[in-house]
Amino acid sequence: MEGLAELHTHLGGSVASDILWSLAHEQGIALPVKDYSEFERLVTVSDPRGVANLDALDQIYHWTELIQSSPIAVERSVHAAIGGAYRSQGITTLELRFNPMKRNRGGERDLDHIILAAIRGLDRASLEYPQVRAGLILMMDRTFSAEQNSVIVEKAIGWAPRGIVGVDIAGPRPDGTRYDYRQALPMVEEARAAGLGVTIHVGEEGGDIGRDEIGEVVEVLRPDRIGHGILAAGSDELMSALREAEIVLEICPTSNLLTKALRDEDAVRETFRSFVDAGVAFTIATDGPEMMHTHLRDELELLRRIGALDEDELAEANRRGHEASFVRAGRLMPRV
Ligand SMILES: [Zn+2]
Predict the structure, then answer these.
(1) Which positions are annotated as active-site residues?
(2) Is 60 exceeded by the pLDDT of residue 38?
(3) What is the per-residue pLDDT across 4-19, written as a single tens digit (0 to 9) for each?
């Protein structure tokens, strides 16, 4: 297989625990633990049986985002994540996503400094690993106000020439009820008009609510890609809508198992077979390799082992990742 492509990985889940440990100490962040192995349990999904639900995962993100809440920490995190992905997995197309407003200590740090620090990390990694096409996605949040989310999109557009390649929405539903994705339409349209890619976290969990949300996202937001979208599997209506809109799903099998979004490997296999049979396009990702204790090659191996995808289908999913990336060739440095 050629170089691998990974399009769905969160900065908060992509940095090795030892680096986060050092960053926490360098910044004097008060941690609830004093021992490194306890820290590792704090910042990763350490129990192989996973977490109880997405709220429990958010508790882990709370710590990694807090530790990444400074320009220097963001720069080092982006740099480490890109270099690590290339060195250990041979990933040559990589998109890293993060919410800058969850890294500015409630407005105490300047947002542009945080974003520019991420771009510096990207630039440093590009110098060291010119084989890698990498880009950054800025995330809006379902718990944020429309004003906050529109600031994030404005920043994404402003810094697009420097390596911000897309926008996303993630985070828990504000009060457990269905999230109204239509409120994001003005931001999504603005981002699209500016040439940014659009990917939306939806249809990861939530049963019928999650399925309704997928339908709404496909119809109203028309994103290029969807993060997860696994609840569409088995629904002829949703799968044909995805196929017709040519939306690429970013599927993260181990993450879905750890959060109980998919109950077991049989469910993973059924999900993939549904999408293959219905002609829905997808690519494979980890959601955050360090936090999930998995890497892209492990994901491919899992899918191979459980008979979810054969060799050709795995290669196709990887090719799709390179193709569906928001990183344009123009972003690469001129080679002289
Ligand atoms: Zn995700």
Answers:
(1) 204
(2) yes
(3) 999 999 999 999 999 9
Distance (Å, whole) CA 300 – CA 142: 30
Distance (Å, whole) CA 299 – CA 324: 19
Alpha-carbon distance of 199 to 150, in angstroms, equals: 16
CA angle 138, 142, 145 (to 5 degrees): 90
Q: Is 194:158 a contact under the CB 8 Å cutoff?
A: no
Question: How many Å lie between the centroid of ligand 1 and the Cα of residue 336?
Answer: 37
Separation of 334 CA from ligand 1 center, angstroms?
A: 32
Mean of pLDDT over the chain: 95
CATH class given for the domain over 4-329: alpha beta
Going from the C-alpha of 73 to that of each of 37, 70, 95, 158, 160, the distances in angstroms are 21, 5, 18, 22, 21
281 in the Ramachandran plot: left (φ > 0), alpha (ψ -120 to 50) or beta? Answer: beta
pTM passes above 0.90: yes
Instruction: Order across the sheet with 225-228: list the strands.
Output: 4-10, 91-98, 133-141, 164-170, 197-202, 225-228, 248-251, 282-284
HSE-CB of 74 using CA atoms within 13 angstroms: 28
What confidence score (pLDDT) does residue 107 get? 83
Report CA(31)–ligand 1 centroid distance (Å).
Answer: 25
Helix or strand run (H / E) with residue 18: helix 17-26
Mean per-residue pLDDT, 266-294: 97
DSSP secondary structure string, 42-89? HHS--STT--SSHHHHHHHHHHHHHHT-SHHHHHHHHHHHHHHHHHHH
- Cα 199 to chain centroid distance, Å, stands at 9
Q: In the 8-state DSSP scheme, what is residue 162?
A: G
Spatial contact of 161 and 155, defined as CB atoms under 8 Å apart: no
Query: Distance between CA 36 and CA 52 in Å, rounded?
Result: 23
Average pLDDT for residues 304-326, to the nearest whole number?
98
In the reported structure, the alpha carbon of residue 177 is separated from the centroid of ligand 1 by a whole-number distance in angstroms of 19
CA-to-CA distance for 109 and 71, rounded, in angstroms? 8
Q: At what angle do helices 17-26 and 54-67 cross, to 10 degrees?
A: 50
